[in-house]
TrEMBL record:
Family matches, as InterPro entries: Acyl_CoA_acyltransferase (IPR016181), GNAT_dom (IPR000182)
Domain N-acetyltransferase: 18-189
GO molecular function ontology, one term from the record: acyltransferase activity, transferring groups other than amino-acyl groups
Pfam families, A to Z: Acetyltransf_1
Protein name listed in UniProt: Acetyltransferase, GNAT family
Keyword field: Transferase
Length: 189
């Protein structure tokens, strides 16, 4: 894709914070979760190691609708935020930030879901959504964002590129829910 085509796509992307009236089945019909993973990070003998572990990740319509009607709706109803990126009025990326503090000083809020559609990766959309999450976290008075990151090499690299580091405090509930995830944090100050 040429530079001009990329610029046109970026120019046509809109960002929005969803309200409960936006939550409906089919909202993610154009979203493509596809990810071809080749390498993943694993903790082996207390060291983080990048290993070959090829697989693909996808999300079908049933999973998308369950995410919308379950997590998105709950997040908004409980005071959290769902940020989306739209291209031609279709959701192509999203981030959820539940209003739930945790940590030894209640210093963290968690980015619970964070995805960019396969065809739209590499355009800076994720960085824009991440910035919206950071801004909201600051408004709420959080010190840090917490991320239980997919262990794929590219996913961890993205979070590192926006300034995330290994989490100082591990959220045991999240770590137990996804034992292969890499626990990360981002300082808001």
């Amino acid at each position: 894709m040429s530079y001009d085509q990329k610029m046109n796509i970026n120019h046509d992307i809109r960002y929005k914070q969803l309200i409960i009236d936006d939550v409906r089945e089919g909202l993610l019909d154009y979203f493509n979760r596809f990810q071809e993973v080749k390498k993943v990070w694993r903790i082996i003998e207390n060291k983080k190691v990048l290993i070959e572990h090829p697989f693909t990740e996808e999300m079908d319509k049933r999973e998308k609708d369950a995410l919308i009607m379950g997590h998105f709706a709950e997040c908004i109803r409980e005071g959290g935020c769902v940020f989306v990126a739209l291209y031609q009025n279709n959701v192509i990326a999203f981030a959820t930030l539940p209003y739930a503090f945790f940590g030894s000083r209640n210093q963290y809020v968690n980015i619970a879901e964070f995805y960019t559609s396969y065809e739209f990766r590499g355009y800076g959309i994720g960085k824009n959504l991440f910035a919206q999450c950071a801004e909201q976290g600051k408004k709420w008075g959080a010190e840090k964002l917490y991320i239980s990151s997919h262990s794929a090499e590219e996913t961890v690299a993205f979070y590192r590129s926006v300034g995330c580091v290994d989490a100082i405090e591990i959220n045991q509930r999240l770590a137990e829910k996804e034992p292969y995830d890499i626990q990360m944090e981002y300082s808001l100050y």
